[in-house]
Design brief:
Elements: H1 5-15, H2 20-27, H3 35-67, H4 80-90, H5 95-102, H6 111-120, H7 125-138, H8 145-157, H9 161-178, H10 184-191, H11 200-211, H12 215-221
Helix pairs in contact: 4-5, 4-6, 6-7, 6-8, 7-8, 8-9, 8-10, 9-11, 11-12
């Protein structure tokens, strides 16, 4: 009588010294294979991979941001607004020294950070003006409509109407050429919730539209 497959396995086990991985290989049952099971396994695998990938992407920014506190204050991107404001105050608005102090963090300077710095400089319109010009001219960054509106309000509140008018005309022209969906009047109105402002700004806006040959369009915004 020939030994059964189970007897053969037992004999082999006694005869040879088998490693644990091999034992596992011997006793793993062979599942029936079909194209449907293969495709379902493939879909399950790709679905798991996709969900893991999505999880990684959604958490990347928050994880990296939470690790920033381990860095020195002068190298922490989350501290860039504080660093800029303290440097402007310490060095009497010397933007050349400011550039040196925060050079490593400049890639993290965006329009939201610019707005926050400008709001902190409301009581010192000269500092706000120096910082805004530094961002626009030296760094080559294009300020947002909100950035323009904050600095215009700050300058008008400090009665520096010529500077305020210059930036208003610049903004109206920029919106007309590159940002047609932007509403300057609406942005100026929204900024009054966060900064000091003078009603004369809205009279200046009408004049800015007229000087840029966009009078009819300007009146439609009001």
């Amino acid at each position: 009588m020939n030994p059964s497959p189970i007897h053969v396995v037992k004999l082999n086990l006694y005869k040879y010294s088998l490693s644990l991985p091999l034992l596992r290989f011997i006793f793993i049952p062979k599942l029936p294979f079909s194209s449907s099971s293969s495709s379902s396994l493939s879909l399950s695998s790709s679905s798991s991979s996709s969900s893991l990938q999505t999880l990684d992407q959604s958490q990347t920014n928050s994880i990296s941001s939470s690790l920033f506190h381990l860095l020195p204050q002068t190298q922490n991107p989350n501290n860039i607004v504080n660093l800029i404001c303290s440097n402007l105050k310490q060095h009497n608005s010397n933007v050349a020294l400011l550039h040196t102090e925060v050079k490593a963090l400049l890639p993290h300077l965006g329009t939201q950070e610019v707005s926050r710095v400008l709001l902190r400089c409301q009581s010192d319109s000269s500092t706000a003006l120096s910082f805004f010009n530094w961002v626009k001219n030296d760094l080559g960054l294009r300020p947002s409509t909100q950035n323009y509106c904050i600095v215009v309000h700050t300058l008008a509140w400090s009665r520096k109407f010529s500077h305020a008018m210059k930036f208003l005309c610049e903004l109206v022209e920029l919106v007309k050429d590159d940002l047609p969906s932007e509403d300057v009047f609406k942005n100026l109105a929204l900024c009054t919730e966060d900064c000091n402002w003078d009603p004369v700004v809205f009279d200046m806006l009408v004049k800015a539209y007229l000087e840029n040959g966009a009078g009819s369009r300007g009146f439609k915004k009001f």
